[in-house]
């Protein structure tokens, strides 16, 4: 029959090893999270730009169901003459006819005027009727949507706020610093325990 001492406790080295494992896992999780966030931002921001794509953030719900509010769409510059009904384009409506700034809507109709110029009309996929304005595209090329990433635009909009940028940079740095301090504290404790084990006459506090 084997007897056990109910008052016995795990050795200091066992506790230190367990704590070391937990801290090591925490550091790995933080490192992977930070690296993953950096890689995602790099992929979303840098790679498409390097390939010649333009990036726009959807700020309204007129294309909901296709490109929801907060999405990022990537546009490729194509010959204007290649545009067809059903293509989604990013353009500036005629002055005074539509909202200020650029609009990303689907081409609803293409007609020829008396001079043979192509006249466009667009529509948001979530809107009940086409846009009330008609327009021409005078440039030989036009930005056409070829892909979109849902909700990532919210992150880009948030990064435009100084306080948010500080948090995005500061919080991971703080977590890494805390993990390093915890590691130093653990190593100091292990060193004190080792000294105490090797020199019983040395009292550590």
Care to describe what's here?
By secondary structure, the chain is an alpha+beta fold. The chain folds into two domains: 13-50 and 160-198; 54-150, Umud Fragment, subunit A, CATH 2.10.109. Helices cover 41% and strands 20% of the residues. The chain is built from three helices and six strands; from the N terminus they run αββββββαα. It has helices spanning 12-50, 152-159, 162-198; strands spanning 54-57, 72-79, 88-91, 103-112, 118-123, 141-149. The strands form two sheets. It has a three-stranded antiparallel β-sheet with strand order 1-2-6. Strands 3-4-5 form a three-stranded antiparallel β-sheet, with no helix packed on it. It is rod-shaped, with a radius of gyration of 30 Å. The chain starts with 11 loop residues before the first helix and ends in a 7-residue tail after the last helix.
Task: Draw up the topology in text.
Elements: H1 12-50, E1 54-57, E2 72-79, E3 88-91, E4 103-112, E5 118-123, E6 141-149, H2 152-159, H3 162-198
Antiparallel strand pairs: 1-2, 2-6, 3-4, 4-5
């Amino acid at each position: 029959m084997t007897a056990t001492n109910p008052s016995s406790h795990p050795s200091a080295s066992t506790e230190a090893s367990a704590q070391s494992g937990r801290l090591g896992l925490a550091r790995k999780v933080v490192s992977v999270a930070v690296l993953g966030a950096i890689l995602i931002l790099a992929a979303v921001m840098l790679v498409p730009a390097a390939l010649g794509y333009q990036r726009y953030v959807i700020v309204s719900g007129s294309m909901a169901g296709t490109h929801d509010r907060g999405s990022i769409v990537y546009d490729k510059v194509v010959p204007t003459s290649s545009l067809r009904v059903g293509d989604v384009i990013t353009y500036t409506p005629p002055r005074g006819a539509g909202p200020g700034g650029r609009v990303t809507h689907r081409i609803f109709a293409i007609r020829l005027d008396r001079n043979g110029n192509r006249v466009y009309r667009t529509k948001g996929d979530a809107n009940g009727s086409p846009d009330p304005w008609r327009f021409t595209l005078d440039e030989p090329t036009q930005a056409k949507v070829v892909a979109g990433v849902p909700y990532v635009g919210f992150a880009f909009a948030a990064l435009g706020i100084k306080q948010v940028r500080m948090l995005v940079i500061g919080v991971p740095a703080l977590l890494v610093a805390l993990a390093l301090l915890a590691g130093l504290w653990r190593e100091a404790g292990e060193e004190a325990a080792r000294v105490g084990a090797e020199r019983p006459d040395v009292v550590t506090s």
